[in-house]
């Protein structure tokens, strides 16, 4: 028996499907370094991820993005798969070192041509292209000049944004400046589990500010080069932070992590100021004098929506630091990605976990969307990433059956539906990811795709979840938890 809304429903009666608004956008997402390969082709220069992945000991199994899923050559097939599934939008990222090698000077036609061909094909198949300018592949030469901790990188980023918009603005109407600047700043420069692998907490805080500044400048460069109806946004991995108990020290821990994970970006970008508690909590590290007059005005540009990536909630406690508990889910490092939050411990939330060891908890997504609606009532929301890695394999029949992923997606989409009913203005959902791909420090060991990739041959096999998701995307109807749509 299943209990639904206070009634006892006989199990044979499948729970009613949930209906999404007709205008809701259904998409899939990828990122350049994770899928393209062709690392040295057509003028592309190394990014920080090429350098990092080629450094022994940094990425599991010594994997690199040199070939990845070979999307640079197989893009037509990948678009055909999306068209077959019936998704209406595709979020991908532009490789900065392909378009503007070394991060300076004029754009390279061959690099731009790749994205022109890709977007033409998408439009031809009625799939709306959504371009992210920066999904972590900073040109290595800019890192050599100091990287994101240096102010000049923000200027370079705005210049690149202008070049990209000028070249692709006739095809791409939806633009995202940065993907998850938290990871760029704090995993890249504090814990070092992402490129460029530095472990300097002050550099991480400086990087956070210059990413904010780069975002603000890039929004202006985009608007100056795009038609008036273009949509411009940023994607944040807003952490849904929960205190382990009602104790004051746990509430304090949650608020510190909320400041370092979320408000360090939403403060300046959406409210025009860094939060007071963040400045206080980090005061022993820096006086924030790298924030110059006028920066905050420049960062707080009006946005058309906020891109939200969500995978799992974050559970914390304060008081005496405990060492025996789960990590914060962002890889293992002797160095914390949380400058100024030394006494905070991270715990594995209850419930089952994915192959990443991340707890499956759709209530975190619901709570997060409702909080964003309350905090920023005028700002439409788009889920720009959500999905899960599981240990998928090809069975003797040549199929990949992934019921755990279907259950994950079902639960999270039901949470999105509930949030919409509670008044959250959620406009779309992008499944991470279209393809299995290079999962950063985990290399190819984690499979997030709706489509399985056999790396030795490059062969694509849509998983059961791909067919299931295609059905949802085509109809706008989300079946109940147990219905078998695979
Ligand atoms: C996000 C990244 C994306 C992918 C997923 C699993 O943090 O934006 O590239 O790695 O996690």
Short note summarizing the structure:
The protein is α/β, with parallel strands linked by helices and 486 residues long. Helices cover 38% and strands 15% of the residues. It has helices at 32-35, 48-53, 71-85, 96-99, 109-124, 140-144, 151-168, 181-191, 201-225, 248-271, 276-281, 295-299, 362-375, 403-421, 464-475; strands at residues 2-4, 7-9, 18-19, 25-29, 89-93, 128-134, 174-179, 231-236, 241-243, 306-309, 314-317, 345-347, 381-386, 426-432, 451-454, 459-462, 477-478.
Q: What distinguishing features does this structure have?
A:
disordered N terminus; 15 helices; binds beta-D-fucopyranose; alpha/beta; 17 strands; globular; TIM Barrel; 486 residues
Please name the fourth-level CATH homologous superfamily.
Glycosidases
Major beta-sheet overview? 8 strands, parallel, barrel
Which strand order do you get reading across the main beta sheet? 4-5-6-7-8-10-13-14
How many distinct helices?
Answer: 15
Q: Whole-number average pLDDT?
A: 95
Strand residues, percent: 15-25%
State the CATH architecture.
Answer: Alpha-Beta Barrel
The hetero compounds bound to this protein are: beta-D-fucopyranose
User: What is the CATH topology classification name?
Assistant: TIM Barrel
- Which blocks of ≥5 consecutive residues have pLDDT under 50? 1-10
Find the structural class using helix and strand composition: alpha/beta
Number of domains: 1
Rounded Rg: 21 Å
Q: How widely separated are the two ends?
A: 23 Å
- Helix coverage percent: 25-40%
Using the alpha-carbon principal axes, give the shape. globular
């Amino acid at each position: 028996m299943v209990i639904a809304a206070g009634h006892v429903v006989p199990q044979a009666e499948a729970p009613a499907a949930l209906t999404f608004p007709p205008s809701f956008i259904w998409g899939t997402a990828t990122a350049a370094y994770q899928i393209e390969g062709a690392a040295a082709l057509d003028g592309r220069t190394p990014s920080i991820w090429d350098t990092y992945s080629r450094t022994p000991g940094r990425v599991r199994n010594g994997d690199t993005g040199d070939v990845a899923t070979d999307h640079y050559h197989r893009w037509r097939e990948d678009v055909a798969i999306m068209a077959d599934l019936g998704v209406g939008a595709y979020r991908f990222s532009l490789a900065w070192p392909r378009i503007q090698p070394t991060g300076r000077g004029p754009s390279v036609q061959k690099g731009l041509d790749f994205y022109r061909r890709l977007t033409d094909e998408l439009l031809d198949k009625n799939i709306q292209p959504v371009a992210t300018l920066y999904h972590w592949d900073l040109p290595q030469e800019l890192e050599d000049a100091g990287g994101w901790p240096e102010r000049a990188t923000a200027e370079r980023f705005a210049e690149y944004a202008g070049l990209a918009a000028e070249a692709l603005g006739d095809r791409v109407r939806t633009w995202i400046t940065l993907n998850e600047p938290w990871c760029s700043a704090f995993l890249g420069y504090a814990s070092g589990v992402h490129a460029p692998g530095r472990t300097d907490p002050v550099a991480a805080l400086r990087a956070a500010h210059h990413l904010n500044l780069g975002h603000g400048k890039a929004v202006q460069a985009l608007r100056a080069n795009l038609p008036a109806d273009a949509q411009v946004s940023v994607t944040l991995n807003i952490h849904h932070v929960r205190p382990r108990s009602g104790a004051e020290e746990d509430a304090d821990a949650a608020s510190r992590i909320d400041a370092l994970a979320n408000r360090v970006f939403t403060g300046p970008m959406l409210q025009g100021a860094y939060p007071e508690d963040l400045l206080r909590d980090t005061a022993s590290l820096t006086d924030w004098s790298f924030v110059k007059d006028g920066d905050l005005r420049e960062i707080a540009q009006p946005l058309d929506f906020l891109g939200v990536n969500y995978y799992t909630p974050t559970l914390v406690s304060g008081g005496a630091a405990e060492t025996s508990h789960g990590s914060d889910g962002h890889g293992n490092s002797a160095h914390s990605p949380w400058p100024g939050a030394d006494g905070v411990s991270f715990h594995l939330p209850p419930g089952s976990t994915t192959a990443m060891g991340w707890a499956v908890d759709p209530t975190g997504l619901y709570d997060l969307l409702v909080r964003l609606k309350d905090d920023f009532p005028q700002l439409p929301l788009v889920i720009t990433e959500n999905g899960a890695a599981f240990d998928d394999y090809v069975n003797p029949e040549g199929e990949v059956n992934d019921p755990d992923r279907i259950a994950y997606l079902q639960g999270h989409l039901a949470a999105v539906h509930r949030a919409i009913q509670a008044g959250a203005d959620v406009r779309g959902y992008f499944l991470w990811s279209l393809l299995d791909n290079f999962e950063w420090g985990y290399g190819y060991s984690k499979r997030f795709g709706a489509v399985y990739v056999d790396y030795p041959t490059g062969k694509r096999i849509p998983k059961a979840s791909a067919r299931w998701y295609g059905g949802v995307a085509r109809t706008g109807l989300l079946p109940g938890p147990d219905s078998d749509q695979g």
